[in-house]
Structure formats: structure tokens, C-alpha cells
Amino acid sequence: MYNLHPVRVYYLDEVLEDPRMVARMERMVGAMQLPETGVQEFAREDVPSVIEDLQSAWSPEMVFDEPWGPWARPVVFTVQDLEDTKPEYAEIVERLPEGGALSHVHQLLGHIDTARPYHEREDDWQKNFVCWPTKDFGTMSGCPHGCQYCGVGKSSFFTAIGLNIEEFMEVAVPRTIAERPWQKCFRMIGWGADHIAWEPEYGVIDLYTRALAKHDRYGYFHSTSSNVEWLEDVEHRDRLIGIWSTTCESVARDIEPGSGPALDRITAAAKCEEMGIPVRFKFKPMIPVRNWREEYAEIIEQMCTLTNPESIGFCVVMWNTVESLAQLIDFNLLDPDYVQAAQDAAEEMRDVITGPFPHDVRAEIYHYLTEQVRRWDEDVLLYISTESREMWDEMADALGQRPESFFCGCNPIGLPGGKLAVSKDCPHSTYRRLEAETAEV
Ligand code: SF4
Fold it and tell me: Which residue of 241, 253, 288, 379 is most buried, as measured by CB atoms within 10 A?
């Protein structure tokens, strides 16, 4: 686990009811540098004062404070509600300090979703995304990386970690698999989280792979971390697929302050390959920094020289207006021509989910990145991630994959080895509707 230096560590008193949770917390706390306040217990009625204390101990600017940056963000251990309820907690909410919200109460008291659906077909059609419908797991909310394009990484003032992992594997995993018999691969990703950063002390991946083996499924860890050595001791690591959200060095340094150099993720992936774990990469978000061509060309060369990924994907930073992106990332770091293009297209892109960079800018970037990969590797499967239908129409030939049936990164039916487990319930990507839906329209 990282050598975290949280400025506060709290745990919900209900953790003490299960020795397995206590042991897990002790392992994790033992790997951290504790603050002067030590490890503090709280009860349900204490939540308002805990939130007040966490807010006073942490502010978003501390993400860039030397030497610990986002590794100093407070940590709260809790018991995850496996029924996914979201009580109103009116009597707690009315006592919250300014800036406190029901969502904070939920996280502290373990109302952290066990699983969430993404990219349902109807949704992707409305938003003009192309992806695959999936459901992901999570046991925590928050992350030590502090990525500035991520709302949680930038602004959350604590990380909430569920400790009842044994129960999670007995209840949440089989329930979700039973709901979606056609889904073969599930991410353990959490919500603005990065599970492998907390291993092996957390032990979630070990138990997750055991559960996956029992149900004959595969699982992704989806990470910007290079903390992988411990995977050698995971008995069922053959059930795992490693996906890295990766980038160039200046983005890693300036925008992802807690995640380490970009090259480290590639060497981590190479170690995973040696352990027999298939690896895939996503340049997501690709951020067009000032000298992005040289920067991305360099890291792609390293990637293709040091590893043999099953796929490499691209996604230019999106889901923003030009104004909201300026709140997240310092525009002085970016290619001025592209900033200008985004500003010029601000109105046209206002309600376009793939904004703020207009189609032509994104297409130019994708063509360039594709060419760079093909300099080194003619065969690796390439894709664009959560892009528009129009972008797929433009890029399909260059990428060498079809938008209906592309193999990508965290694909719900993307088996190790580069094969899609298509079925009548998931015959193609969200580029197309299911035939039954089309018939109803
Ligand atoms: S890698 Fe594939 S499944 Fe995952 S988000 Fe991108 S397009 Fe969707």
C-alpha cells in the first residue's frame, strides 16, 4: 500500500462488531503514517462534528502541497450498506456544518453503492456515446491520486473505505452477476477510487478474484497506480485483467499529482504480463498539453516497446464545457491553438457531451495517436472510448475496428485474449440499439 500520511483517520464504531473488519483496518492503518490525532472512533450521532473536523483538516489546494499532496487526504473506515439504501438522515442533516451534504453523511455511514450501471443503451443513444452497457463494483469512494480532471480527486475532503469485504463478496457480487448473466467481465472500480493503491493490506482484490473464480467471471482493476508487486501472491490472479488509465509524463506530473510517473504504469503493466495478467491501456483522458505530440509519441513508444497490451484506447478529455474544464485544469498547460478552438466552439459544444474540444480537434488527435501506435505495433487492437457515433464513423478504418463490435478496455464481454463473448443480450456495442428496442420505436 502507498505510504499515506492522512491528516485525519476515523472509523465508524460499528466496524468493531466484526473481527475481520478490525483486522483489515489494523493492517491498513499499520501501513500509514498516522496524524497526531491518531485513529479516532465515531458513532452515527457524531457525523456532523466529524464532517466539520474533516473540512477543517483538509482543503482542495492541499493536493499540491509538498511532500504528501493527495496522500494526506483524510481516510474514514466504515461498514458498507450492502442493500444500497440511501436514508434521508434528516436529524443528522439538520446539524451539518456549512458545506456538509447528505452525500457526505452517506459515505461516512457506508451508503456507498455496491454496484452501478453505466452506458445503458437508451442512455448512450440520448447522449451520443458509443460504449458497452456494463455494471461495475465498488467498495470505496475517494482516491489518493488527486487527479484534477476528476471531481472527487480534486475536491473531496475524505476517502471512505468499506471494510466488510467478505460479506460484499457473499452478497453483492453474486447478486449482480445473477442480474446480468451475459456480463462476463466486471470492473472493481468504486467511485472516484483506485482499489489497487490500497493493496495488499485491503485484501479486496484477493477476495474478489476468489468470488470471480467461483462464478466463472473475470474482473478488471482499473488504475493509474503502479502498485502491483503484491499481485504475485494473489492465488486467482488468472481471473484478473489490468487496465491502466494512462497519459504522458507532463500530465502525470502536473495534473495527477499522487499517481507517480506515466512510465511507472507501463513498467507495472509489464510486471503484470510476467505474472500472466493480461493488460490494456486507455489514454483517458488524453489531455492536449502544449507539446502533446512529442509527449504522447514518447510514452506510446515506451508502451509498445515494454509491453504487449491487448488493446490501446483514446479519449480526449470530455464531459465538460470550456468554462467547467477551466475550473479543473490550468489552461496555461494546454496547447493554445486547441484552447482557442474550444473557446471558439463554446456555444456549439455547450450541450455536447464529448465537449469542450470540437470534433475536428479530437479527430486530429486520434489520427495522430493511432499513427504513433502503428509505428511500433501493427496488430494491437485500437479503439476510441465513449466517443460519438460521428467520431466512430470517421475513425473506424484508421483504427481497424467496427463501431458495433470493437474490443476495448473495460468491456463487459471483453474476455482475456481479445475475444468478445457476444450473446443475444449483448450482441453489439451501444453504437446500435438492440433489435427489440428498434422494433418498439
Ligand atoms: S473501454 Fe470500452 S467499455 Fe470501457 S469505457 Fe471505453 S468504450 Fe466503454
Answer: 288
Residue 2 lies in a domain: no
Closest residue by Cα to atom 3, ligand 1, is 411
d(CA 246, CA 385): 13
Average pLDDT, the chain: 96
Residues of the domain holding 267 = 9-440
Ligand 1 pocket mutation pick from 124, 366, 386, 430 by most atoms within 8 angstroms of CB: 386
- Average pLDDT on 217-232 reads 97
Residue 90, domain member (yes or no)? yes
pLDDT for 299-319, tens place per residue? 999 999 999 999 999 999 999
CATH of the domain at 419: 3.80.30.30
How many residues would you count in the chain?
A: 441
Confidence at residue 256, expressed as pLDDT on a 0 to 100 scale: 95
| Total tally of structural domains belonging to the chain | 1
List Cα–Cα distances, 103 to 10, 52, 93, 323, 343, in angstroms.
17, 14, 10, 25, 33
> What is the secondary structure of 227-257 as a DSSP string?
--GGGGG-TTGGGEEEEEE---HHHHHHH-T
Grid coordinates representing 78 are: 466504515
Give me ligand 1 centre to Cα 400, in Å: 16
Cα separation, 201 vs 203, whole angstroms? 5
**C-alpha dihedral sign at 32, 33, 38, 44:** negative
Residue 3: inside a domain: no
> Any idea what the Cα angle at residue 394 is, between residues 391 and 400, rounded to 5°?
105
| Inside any domain, residue 1 | no
